[in-house]
Amino acid sequence: MARPEAPRRLRRIPGALFVVTVLLSLAVREWYPFSPFPMYAVFGPETWYVVVTDGADRLVPTQRFFGVSATPLKRTYELRMLAHRGRGAALADAEALAAQATLRAAAAHAPAGAPTPPAQLRLWRVRARAEGTQVERTSRLLGEVRLR
Question: In terms of residue numbers, what domain contains 142?
Fold first, then answer.
């Protein structure tokens, strides 16, 4: 039984869709499908991350004490900060409230068997900027809490 041959126009649709997708991607500066790294072929010169310190500004290893790395803490902080901003809080207030809530939540959800965290915790925003072969880092305190 012979298969009916698809009209010539229908056979060209996949190729046309590919070309349109590539052109749109290039127009918005998204390098997919040419990226060697999934979805991000070009990195910006600046980024930021969060770190946790104790009251004496010594780094607190978040994985050990809270069972999470800095990336989920950053996301939690961002979501909380945006929620406070959405409710009309000033930027500085939203940052402090979000930092406090993030630190309290991390301490409250520490895995069983984790060491007791320090009594005072501080959340810092660290801005990293690449300048040639050098990386410039600046830190800013977002907020702090006293747990006990």
Answer: 46-146
